[in-house]
Amino acid sequence: MTDCIIQTHALNFRFSRHKKVLDNVSLNIPKGSIYGFLGPNGAGKSTTMRLLTGILPEQENAITIFGKPLKEQLPQVFNNVGALVESPALYLHLSGYSNLKYIAKLRNVPESRIAEVLQLVDLAADAKRKVKYYSLGMKQRLAIAITLLNEPDILLLDEPVNGLDPNGMRDIRQLLVKLNKEKGITIFVSSHLLAEIEKMCTHVGIISHGQLKFEGTIEELSKFSGACKIQLTLSNAAEWHERLLAEYPEAVLENTSQVVLELPNREEIPQFTKKLVESGAGIYEIKILNGLEEWFMSLIR
Question: What is the average per-residue pLDDT within 221-244?
Answer without folding.
Answer: 87
